[in-house]
């Protein structure tokens, strides 16, 4: 058998031995299968029963046949892929687990002064530079469940118009998170910002223009807010606020501005859609999800290993994914595989 065992398909070594016995001996009795497996007769009977329940064996105790290997391998592989996909989905969105753990944490008492806390998180935290602010935006967006509010004055468009923040916004929209963005009306939108806004709007984001917008405000699920330390220089740092009263006041301010704002006029037409993969990319995507090694995938695709890996890199960028596992999840959500 070498290394070609059926364990990746969810079979134990005994179950595999019994299945292979009936492949070699069609119509044999179950009691004869103990010669093929290092177990007693009762253990072999239990393994045969499990295989019959799963459709790998059919017939009676006296005359048993193995189901066609092509049918068996395809069905078991699909079952394992579905199970792996469900596991990856749970790992990709661990927020329900995190929330259940927070419910078990007792409310803290304020001892010896210190900072103001909400749960285990600091209710008012200063982030010293733009890098720290973007990292906190990343974390807050990942945990957002319902809504993201963003009031973005003109001067903040460039530092916030990055490929990374665009990817964050698109992932939130695909999860069903509502995204509302207010823009200042004092200056034209830079090219990169316009392109990102166009992408976000095409995925369901709501964008309006407000007169006299001067403060950057980001609010996540009406629980966490980010505001700049210096309204005129976002690079000097950002305050992360989790105190409910302050956050509620910022939400109320946003809602007043939103009610008075106007819909953003149509942006210049975008270039032809480049989000759908090409035929070659679809082939590489499928192989990336199924092939055991890049070398195997490259041979199956009929291309060099270097070209294959370049296509993989392009697919990760196209999907906004940080890993192949995440790319597989996002591709499945889009119906590409």
From TrEMBL:
Protein name (record): LuxR family transcriptional regulator
GO biological process, one term: regulation of DNA-templated transcription
The species this protein was found in: Streptomyces microflavus
InterPro entries per record: Sig_transdc_resp-reg_C-effctor (IPR016032), TrmB-like (IPR051797), WH-like_DNA-bd_sf (IPR036388)
Listed transmembrane segments: none
GO MF assignments: DNA binding
């Amino acid at each position: 058998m070498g290394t070609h065992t059926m364990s990746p398909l969810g079979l134990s070594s005994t179950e595999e031995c019994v299945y292979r016995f009936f492949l070699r001996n069609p119509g044999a009795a179950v009691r004869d299968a103990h010669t093929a497996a290092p177990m007693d007769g009762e253990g072999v009977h239990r393994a045969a029963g499990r295989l019959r329940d799963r459709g790998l064996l059919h017939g009676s105790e006296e005359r048993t046949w193995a189901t066609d290997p092509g049918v068996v391998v395809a069905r078991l592989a699909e079952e394992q892929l579905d199970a792996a996909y469900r596991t990856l989905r749970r790992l990709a969105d661990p927020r329900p687990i995190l929330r259940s753990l927070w419910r078990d944490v007792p409310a803290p008492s304020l001892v010896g002064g210190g900072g103001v806390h909400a749960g285990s998180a600091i209710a008012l935290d200063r982030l010293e530079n733009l890098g720290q602010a973007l990292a906190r935006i990343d974390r807050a967006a990942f945990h957002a469940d319902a809504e993201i509010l963003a009031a973005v004055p003109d001067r903040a468009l460039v530092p916030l118009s990055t490929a990374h923040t665009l990817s964050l916004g698109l992932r939130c929209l695909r999860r069903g998170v509502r995204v509302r963005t207010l823009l200042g009306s004092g200056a034209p939108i830079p090219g990169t910002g316009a392109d990102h806004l166009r992408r976000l709007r095409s995925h369901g984001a709501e964008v309006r223009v407000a007169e006299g917008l001067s403060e950057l405000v980001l609010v996540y699920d009406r629980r966490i807010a980010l505001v700049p330390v210096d309204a005129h220089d976002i690079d000097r740092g950002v305050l992360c606020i989790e105190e409910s009263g302050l956050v509620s006041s910022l939400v109320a301010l946003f809602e007043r501005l939103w009610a008075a704002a106007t819909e953003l006029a149509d942006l210049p037409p975008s270039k032809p859609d480049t989000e759908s993969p090409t035929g070659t990319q679809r082939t590489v995507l499928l192989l990336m999800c199924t092939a055991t090694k890049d070398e195997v995938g490259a041979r199956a695709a009929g291309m060099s290993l270097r070209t294959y890996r370049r296509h993989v890199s392009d697919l990760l960028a196209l999907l906004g994914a940080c890993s192949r596992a995440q790319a597989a999840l996002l591709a499945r959500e889009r119906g590409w595989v």
